[in-house]
Amino acid sequence: MSSLFHTDSRHGPERRVSIGEAMDRLVRGGLPLRFTAYDGSSAGPTDADLGMHLRTERGLAFLMTAPGDLGMARAYVSGDLDLSGVHPGDPYDALVLLKDHTRFRVPTPSEAVLIARSLGVSRLRPPPPPPQEHLPRWRRAVEGVRHSMTRDAEVISHHYDVSNRFYELVLGPSMAYTCALYETPEATLEQAQAAKFDLVCRKLDLQPGQRLLDVGCGWGTMVRHAAREHGVRAVGVTLSLEQAQWANEAIEREGLGDLAEVRHLDYRDVVETGFDAVSSIGLTEHVGVRNYPAYFAHLRDRLRPGGRLLNHCITRPRNTRQETGAFIDRYVFPDGELIGSGTIIAAAQDQGLEVQHSENLRPHYAATLRDWNRNLVEHWDECVAEVGEGTARVWGLYIAGSRIGFERDEVELHQVLATRNHADGRSDFPMRPHW
Q1: Which helix (H) or strand (E) holds 109?
Q2: Which residues form the signal peptide (predicted)?
Q3: Are 83 and 228 in the same domain?
């Protein structure tokens, strides 16, 4: 800590430092962008294209009481920390720069006290977090069992019951909040989402008159696509009431009421059986790794012998348990859990499903996120008017950060196709894939 505080007999025992000086010395190798603060101090290269401005003492308290991504997220979401040179709807370039060139040295408690004294912060008491922040894991554990039906409903509502109009602006007309499939680099987001749903339908070999169950159906895009394009009778279930209402209105608008329906229901409450196919697109992330056996057993039991299951979800490149980061857990997907595709495949196999095919769409998700950021930038003012600037900032940060994760193979996206075989072992699966 002697590098921060200097003794000089002519000027007293301790020289206080500015915020800029403290930031510069607490970042190994120095800041890669221009940093300025409300006390008039600065740090980092003067000719940098990108900048960061700390506006308030509350923002400083956020940074000091929650070092790392959580503190920066709190300050940024609350408007106490601004980025310049990037749009708040797409801070991708700034996040890449910070990720590649910023290594914070976390101060010890005694160092933090000295920094606080030097910078004029009277206490190291965390300010109240922004309203967009969910409870920490330990508080959620006190208030309910992880992945119980009640707690799952609460956290799903936290993320999805934001505003249907907001999702329309960010996701586009498809209202698909899952990885798209870019058949060419020039494909639009809408073309890529349609290609994804068609791929799922082809992998499931959907035929007119068949029955499809789509669990975690969101706004019903898969249900409507399967009914409209393949003539199946489709049922979707979602824990989000706003999603269910929007989906059923869309079904009626498109004249699909005789083929499709969406229910506000936990997938565990679906009792019908004999479905020809089950699709799960973006649900497994919310299930919990320990619950995979029950999850796959329940979906298996919904299928007829010879029926198919397509599981589409975000995965990790390894099969070791790893909690999501503090920002994602508090602001985006509370209780979300990710693990490698090997664990998912093993869980499906252990419940008597035969895995026929697995495919990694990781680069496609990076492209999907890029296009969601573009939509957010294009409709920024309307998004802010709909949900507030704090929530809009959360989304810009989350989407851009996730894009980096997919680009760098920190996360992946796997589709796993499996069958419930007949008692004699027949799968009704062709000798070679037909899609």
Answers
A1: helix 109-119
A2: none
A3: no
The answer to whether residues 261 and 328 belong to one domain is yes
**218 phi/psi in degrees, rounded to 5:** 60, -130
Q: Count up the domains in the chain and report the number.
A: 2
> Would you tell me the crossing angle of helices 221-230 and 241-253 to the nearest 10 degrees?
20
Residue finishing a domain among 98, 119, 140: 119
More confident residue, 77 or 15: 77
* Chain centre distance of CA 260: 28
- pLDDT of 317 higher than 90: yes
Give the pLDDT of residue 17.
73
Residue 134, in any domain of the structure: no
| Predicted confidence band of residue 52 (pLDDT cuts 50, 70, 90) | very high
Would you say residue 259 lies in a domain? yes
| Same domain as 96, residue 156 | no
pLDDT: is 158 or 162 the higher one? 162
Q: Is residue 208 located within the same domain as residue 77?
A: no
What number of helices (H) and strands (E) belong to the chain? 17, 15
Does residue 365 lie within any of the structural domains? yes
Domain span at residue 68 reads: 19-119
Q: Which CATH number goes with the domain that contains 182?
A: 3.40.50.150
Contacts 24+ apart (CB under 8 A), 177-183: 177/218, 177/219, 177/282, 178/218, 178/281, 178/282, 178/312, 179/312, 179/314, 179/361, 179/364, 179/365, 179/368, 179/413, 180/364, 180/365, 180/367, 180/368, 180/371, 181/361, 181/364, 182/364, 182/367
31-51 tens-digit pLDDT? 899 999 999 999 999 999 999
Residue 161 lies in a domain: yes
Last residue of a domain, one of 119, 137, 159: 119
CA dihedral 187, 417, 432, 200 (to 10 degrees): -30
Predicted TM-score (pTM) of this structure: 0.89
- 238 bridge partner residues: 264
- At a CB cut-off of 8 Å and minimum separation 6, what does 110 contact? 1
State whether residue 177 is helix, strand or coil. Answer: coil
Query: What are the DSSP E strand ranges found in 265-343?
Result: 275-281, 303-315, 322-323, 337-338
What angle (nearest 5°) sits at the alpha carbon of residue 342, between those of residues 340 and 358? Answer: 100
Closest CA to 325 of 41, 8, 95, 14: 95
Tell me the Cα Rg of the chain.
25
Whether the predicted pLDDT of 96 surpasses 80: yes
Identity of the highest mean pLDDT range in 64-68, 118-122, 326-330? 326-330
- The pLDDT tens digits for 267-281 are 999 999 999 999 999
